[in-house]
Amino acid sequence: MTSLKKLLLGEQGLVVIFAIAFAIVAATVPNFLTERNMLGLLQSVVTIGIVACTMMFCLASRDFDLSVGSTVAFSGMIAVMASNATGSIVLGLIAALLCGGAVGLVNGVVIARFRINALITTLATMQIVRGLALIASDGRAVGINDPGFYQLALSKFLGIPTPIWVMAIFFVIFGFLLNRTVFGKNTLAIGGNPEASRLAGVNVSRMRIWIFALQGLVCAVAGVLLASRITSGQPNAATGLELSVISACVLGGVSLAGGRAAMTGVIVGVLIMGIAENVMNLLNIQAFYQYVVRGLILLLAVLLDNLRSAAAGRRG
Questions:
Q1: 91: which of 17, 101, 165, 294 lies 20 to 30 Å off by Cα?
Q2: Count of domains in the chain?
Q3: 4 part of a folded domain
Q4: For residue 1, what are the CA distances in angstroms to 5, 19, 102, 277?
């Protein structure tokens, strides 16, 4: 019983459980293992996967960001509107990155410098940024003028869509950043004990600002790819994304109390979220029930986080 509990709560255990669940689903759900469905599944988790890379850092440093869905939608809108206005896709991409980075920077400065709670700050920016997206578009979808913009999502390399490659590259980059750099070590240290980190010489405020600025930039990338995939800038896109991303991170072993994170776990968490939705679609389960399943996954993620924290406390 003890060994089973360790398996359930450990990082390697999560991978083993995922592998077993994947095998069961592959054996029981028709058409699940087809190439078309696998690529479609990976495409469906691109937005969650990309944003989870930096949400992992937010959670690991004892913060979180509820404005990611709004930032994704707003950045996608800006990319489309700027490229339409200037006739340049590159300028549209730059405008989106600047806007996404600005939202993240504002979040970081307000939270770190003015010491406003992350929940209140990002809840406020979630509303403000979504409002700006609706105002800028007059509440309507903005069509893409340049067909080249579609190629950001439609293009392929080695038979795999470009957005999936972008997500994989982000997984590698932010996994390296977490495990192999001072930035990653300081992030985990801040989450473990902010005051001890400050006394050890870590500039905690600056670190938190950097983490939120990165979060904004990554949301902009996700927003551009999403706008390209849905072929327009949608002010209501990515609604509820923040809950899916947080669920994926916590399922993957990132602690809500800070100080613990692993990229392999986050990848597994993202895939669990994607597979759950994909299986429901393949089985023709109504969308209404999918909300229930997402809520149950979020509750399961928090329960697992509590169990992991309790187990870590006993070991400590």
A1: 165
A2: 1
A3: no
A4: 6, 20, 50, 31
